[in-house]
Design a protein that fits this description.
Elements lengths: L13 H15 L1 H4 L13 H16 L9 H7 L1
Helix pairs in contact: 1-3
């Protein structure tokens, strides 16, 4: 009898989810993907991209960058 392992991805942190949404949008949005005649991004205004960028910034501000005081990493740094 063979069994197949089903793997599920761990849930994304809010900052990862927000950045993923921004990346998916910008990669498929005609406005965000518009190029100049020299092949550079035209940087046209896109309200959806602006909103997703703001959501990413907000998630980034609310995500701690360092381990909490009770973690093993912090204890190691104190030693």
């Amino acid at each position: 009898m063979s069994t197949t392992a089903v793997t599920t991805d761990p849930p994304l942190r809010p900052i990862q989810a927000a950045l993923g949404q921004l990346g998916k949008h910008c990669a498929s949005c005609p406005t965000c993907m518009t190029m100049t005649e020299t092949g550079e991004n035209a940087n046209l205004p896109c309200s959806t991209a602006d909103q997703l960028y703001e959501a990413w910034l907000q998630a980034r501000r609310s995500t701690p960058l360092f381990a909490t005081s009770g973690s093993a990493r912090t204890a190691k740094l104190r030693a």
